[in-house]
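Entry 14. Ran structure prediction on the chain below.
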Amino acid sequence: METKIIRVAQGKQSTLSQLYINGVFQCYLLEDKIRTEKIKEQTAIPTGTYSLQLNTWGAKNVNYKKAFGKVHEGMIEITGLPNFSYVYIHTGNTIEDTAGCPLCGFGFQLIQGDYRVTQSVMAYQMIYPKLAALAKNKANKISIENNFQF
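Output, C-alpha cells:
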C-alpha cells in the first residue's frame, strides 16, 4: 500500500496536509510550521520517505488504550526521521496539540492566519485501523511531500 502525506497549505505557524492511502484521500493532517532549523516540538516533519510502526509503550499509548479500547493496538509512529523521535499520528485540533506530530481531522479552518483541523477523533477512528494494518507490515513506507496549493 502506498501512503502519502501531501502538504497543501501553510499558515503563520501551521502546515495543512492531506493523507492518502493507495491514492484515496483519507483526512487532513495538521503539523507545525516547516522550518529549516528544527525547534523541538514546533517543527514539521522533513519531507522524505519513512516507515510506520506500532509504539506500544509510553503514557500516550496508555491514554489512547483507555480512550479507544480494544481497537487501539499502539500509537501509529512515524520512524526513521532525522532528529525526531516519538512522532505519532494522533488526535488534536490546533498546533498547540501537535508537539511536532501530525494531527488528523475531517475538516479544517483558517483562523487568524493559522490552520486547525476539526472532527479529529472521528478522523482518527476511521484511519487508525488502516494505519495500524500498514504498520504491521515491516516493508511499509510513508512519504511526505510538499505540494502547496493555497
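The CA atoms of residues 58 and 90 lie 14 Å apart. Will compare against last week's run tomorrow.
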